[in-house]
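Please check this protein record:
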Amino acid sequence: MELVSIIVLNWNGKHLLADCLESIQKQSYSQIETIVVDNGSTDDSLDFMRKNYPDVKIIVNDKNEGFCKAMNQGMKATTGTYKLPLNNDVTLSPDFVKDMVKAAEPAEVGLVTGKLIRVSKTKEEVIDSAGHVMFKNRMPRNRGDGLDVAGFDKPEFVFGACGAAPLYKQEMLDDIAINGEYYDEDFFSFLEDVDLDWRAQLRGWKCKYTPDAIAYHWRGGTAVRRSTIVEKHNYKNRYLMLLKNDSLGFFLLNLPQILFTDIVKSSALLFRAPTALTGWFSLIRLFPKTLRKRRYIQKNRKVKPSQIEKMFVRFDYSGWIKKHMTEDVHSIKNQ
């Protein structure tokens, strides 16, 4: 039985830790080590963990280092054959780890994603994520987002794994790392999991979705949903991701869809939450460094661009424009 290292990231999440850590302790899979990376919490998280979970190893950062750097810290500090980065607002069903490891057994599988069910105040159970899908307009989404939990009941290969509770083979992480980083630390937070998906696909690793592995996600427990800072990093990181991973030919082929999508999103942000567009300054600053990463990724890719393009699906714009010009951006402005 291979060791699974679970890395929980915490930032002022004392109210979430008990459910998360206890769900780890109740796993039917016995070979688990748990480490918590605390990102400069100012609540009583550290005292709470030291008192109630003395067997959990804790890495303490003096400040919020962001999701990517902190998770990289945790993964490098563990020794498992498999790494399971875990949001502290996620609780695992008892067989979650066992089912994820089982799905990861084939040699070509480098990452696994389970069925995440969204926890909300309404108590209505809907899918939070059944893995990632990438659209031709280069917009990633969680498969099944908001749909009935009865769906997506068959195991299959997907583009990638939701970063709230993925399972990564250490072999895969070592294979795709750039400058020793698994998650790209220039992203800080948001879309880093999709970027990792893409790099893994380019190296020939497959992502397996297993509906048997069920976890519950209180989305927004660790970050304010649709806040300006979220949109800023999402905006910046999408372009960093495309610059690093996309093939020029297929990017140009889909350019009309990409431009249309970007015009709608940028217009919405410009009129409703313009500070989110300051992500461009970071993008310009990071451009030379990201270009070097692109050269490395494209030089070492094992999969042809046409094979990656086959995984991208057509985007349904019905209702999307209205949502971005009114509801979503209005909620951003009021954060």
Summary: The chain has two domains: 4-217, 228-333. The chain has twelve helices and twelve strands. Residues 228-333 form one domain. The radius of gyration is 19 Å.
